[in-house]
Structures are given as structure tokens and as C-alpha cells.
Amino acid sequence: MPERFPPAPYRVRMLAGTPREIGAQLGRLDPPFHRPPWWPPPPDPELAEACRRLVARWHPPLIEEYEGYAAAQGMDPRLLWQQVCRTSMRARLFACSAGAVWGPAGAWVGRNYDFRPIQRRRDLVGLRPEGCLASLGMMGSVPGGRYDGVNEAGLFVSLHAVMADEPPPRPGIPFHLIPRILLERCRSAGEAVELLLRMPHMLPLNLLVADPQEGFAVEIHPLCAAVRLPEDGILTVTNHYEHPAMQPYGGRRDLRFSMRRKERLTEHIATGEGPPRERLRRALSDHEAPVCGHRPGFSTLWSVIADLRGRAIEYAFGPPCQTPFHPFPWPSASEWDHPGAPDSGN
């Protein structure tokens, strides 16, 4: 019998305005900011400033948003930036899984985000910043970031940490801002790949980028990057490198858990019965690999399924095997509709 989860602090936010106004709204809604306790110490000021300048170059609205957030919280904006600029993801276990399928029945994606229940920020955020594409997706750990989501053009992005060796920290785009930048700048998976291959990275990552016509798995190390294509219309991504060019960067890690999850995802999507949504739901609820987590160090904190051609998205705020999926409005440049599930207020 799967473990029952206690009520979690999920929140739903739908915000619009200039980036600075959005940051101020978030800063007023949030409790006083504290760096997550499981993160490593913040980088030295020089490295943090170099990363801030890179983000200001690649996506200036994010810096404006952080300035608005800091002002609302009564913080020095450079100190806030230093606190959210993470330069390492060293951990014993990473376990996020995603799959996508393209065919006559449409273009569908599904994804589980897994971490320890200690993660208190679990916010579904819809944003319409002036001058950027509208997007909807989940933010975790720190303000400003995005771990997965869709945008008004039909692009889906999900972030996956990779069990790989990390080189010494050097200036780059902090990992949790990468999906946000892609969703606010790119109208297609091809555009997202092109941007990812030019962008300076600090940490090992996998990203699934998908649109109604195509998708890619982009495997990234600060010293190298490669792109995987779907096979027979199916693309699955977990927490290890698969592309031959990326193998030298994996280091000596036990990849069996990540590989099992990827195999089970592919099997459910390729051979399961029913429409794509039901195959993805069963894949994300798998307890054999397992894909769906119920352990203290491996808990599925949320799950998402999206129909990219039909422009429909739904989130489960907890393990998908036991948590209902709620539909939410597809992001658009017009006013937000009423969200499909209420804000918990926590």
C-alpha cells in the first residue's frame, strides 16, 4: 500500500505585469526568504556577480524580477542573487522522470518531479511578463525558477539533474532558471535546443524540450552537450546521460535506478493500452522501477501531463498513483481564466 502523504504547502499563483511588478507581487506573497538548508554554501560574491551578469545578458527580465522581489522583501538585490545562485547539485540520489510521445493521437508529455518532502516551496506559477511569452509551470526551492512547464506557443520543458562529475564552479546560468528562460523566449523545441547549445552552463543537466511537432532530449555538461532524438515517436528522460558523446562525463555512479525508470517509462508508453494520457498516467504511477516515489529520500512531489496539440495541461500535487490531476488554463497573452484547483494558502 503506497504511503499516504500529509498535506503539502502547494500554492497556485497567476501573475501579470512588468517583470519588476511580478517580482514585487511574489515578494509580498512569500514569507521572508531563507536559502534551502540542503543547498551547499552560496558562491563567493565574484562568481555570483559573474553569473548575474550572464543572466542579465541572456534574459534581462529575470534580473528585473529579482530586483522587484528583493525590494518587496526588504533585501539587498545582490545578496538575494548570491543566495539563489546555486553552483553545485551534489546529492546521493536524483529521481525525476519524463516521457513524451508523438503520433496520430497527438503530442503528449508527462513528468514526475521527485525529491525529499523537506522541500517546502511547491508553487504552480502562471506568468504573463510584459515582452515575454506567457508560461505555466512549477517552481521549487527558490523564487524565480522553474522546474517544468508549458508556454503559450505550445513548448514544454522539464529539468532533470544528472548524476555526473561536476567541474570546478565557473560562471554560467543557474540551473533552475534555464527552463524559465526557454519558456519565456522560445516558441518551439528547435529554438530551445539552439538556445541551450549556446548558453553557458554550470552543472550537469538533462532537459526534455517538446512541442506539438517534435522534441529533443538535451544532455548538458559544462564541458560538453549533445542532443538525443525520439525513437519511434517516443522520448524518455531520467537522470543519466545516454548519448555516446556524453559518456565520458558521467563519472563512476550507479545508474541502474535511473536506467530502470527510463526503461519502464518507455515500455508503458510504447506497449500500454489506451490513449496517450492513460498510458502516461500509468507510466508515471509505476511502482516496479519505481517511477512513482514514496520513500523519504525519493518522494514524488508533483506530476504533470500535457496535451501539446490540444493545449491542455493538468497537475497532480503529490504522487500520481493516489493524487487526482487538476486541469489548469493554458497560458496565453490574454487574461488568466480561473485556475482548476484552489490555492492552498499555505
| Silhouette | globular
Question: DSSP strand (E) fraction?
Answer: 25-35%
> Helicity, in percent?
25-40%
Poorly predicted runs: 1-6, 337-346
Q: Note the gap between the termini.
A: 28 Å
Largest sheet data? 8 strands, mixed
SSE layout and pairings?
Elements: E1 10-17, H1 19-29, H2 45-58, H3 60-73, H4 77-84, E2 97-103, E3 106-115, E4 122-129, E5 135-140, E6 148-151, E7 156-161, H5 178-185, H6 189-198, E8 205-210, E9 215-221, E10 224-228, E11 234-237, H7 256-271, H8 276-284, E12 294-295, E13 298-307, E14 312-316, E15 326-328
Parallel strand pairs: 1-4
Antiparallel strand pairs: 2-3, 2-11, 3-13, 4-5, 5-6, 6-7, 7-8, 8-9, 9-10, 12-13, 13-14, 14-15
Helix pairs in contact: 1-3, 2-3, 7-8
Task: Explain the overall architecture.
- The chain has 346 residues and is of the alpha+beta class.
- The protein is 26% helix and 26% strand.
- The chain has eight helices and 15 strands.
- An eight-stranded mixed β-sheet has the order 1-4-5-6-7-8-9-10, covered by helices on one side.
- The model is unreliable at 1-6 and 337-346 (pLDDT under 50).
Question: What distinguishing features does this structure have?
Answer:
single chain, alpha+beta, eight-stranded mixed sheet, 26% strand, globular
Summarize the structure in short.
About 25% of the residues lie in helices and about 25% in strands. With about 350 residues, it is an alpha+beta fold.
